[in-house]
Write a structure and sequence with these properties.
- This protein is α+β, with helices and mostly antiparallel strands.
- It has one domain: Pnp Oxidase, Chain A (Roll).
- It contains five helices and seven strands.
- A hairpin with a 2-residue loop joins strand 5 and strand 6.
- The longest helix is centred in the N-terminal third of the chain and has 21 residues.
- The chain is globular and about 35 Å long.
- Belongs to the F420H(2)-dependent quinone reductase family.
- This is Nitroreductase.
- Pfam families: F420H2_quin_red (PF04075).
């Protein structure tokens, strides 16, 4: 089994989510230092980006490493928060200020985000599940609808 298939399988477990939360800051630092060429798991085998939002209270830049799906020239991300009951801070930041920055493989692009409406949500969820099947498990554990955001390049 290749690494990405193994990760997709393990990613459905609570233990993996706990570990993921614990190492996410280290992963962010490593990705920043290497321009996205390395993550805590080695060379990324899943599509990852760094999303930089503006903190809704602090006004300071806030970074999060996220998996993504593509929809044409747009990026699609989901606020799974590893299956926790509350929405991730970055999603609250996007709701307060939809302007953000996406960095993929060391290349930054300014974007504007919108919350997917019901019509596009189903189609986009299928694309996100293809990247990470664990999103359904996260939604079930969290007891909430996971927010799906579309990031349009400016």
């Amino acid at each position: 089994m290749d690494l990405s298939r193994s990760l997709r399988h393990l990613g459905r477990t609570r233990a993996f989510a706990r570990v993921g939360r614990a190492v996410s800051r280290l992963d962010l630092r490593l990705q920043r230092a290497t321009g996205g060429r390395w993550s805590v798991l080695g060379r990324p085998t899943l599509p990852q980006l760094v999303l930089t939002t503006t903190g809704r209270r602090s006004g300071e830049p806030r970074d999060a490493v996220l998996l993504y799906a593509r929809d044409g020239d747009r990026w699609v991300v989901i606020g799974s928060n590893w299956g926790q009951q509350h929405h991730p801070a970055w999603s609250l930041n996007l709701l307060a200020d939809p302007r953000a920055r996406v960095t993929v493989h060391g290349r930054g692009v300014d974007v504007v985000a919108h919350l997917a409406d019901d019509t596009e949500r189903g189609r986009l969820l299928d694309a996100l599940r293809a990247v990470w099947p664990g999103y359904d498990d996260y939604a079930e554990r969290s007891g909430r609808d996971l927010r799906v955001f579309v990031l349009d390049p400016l």
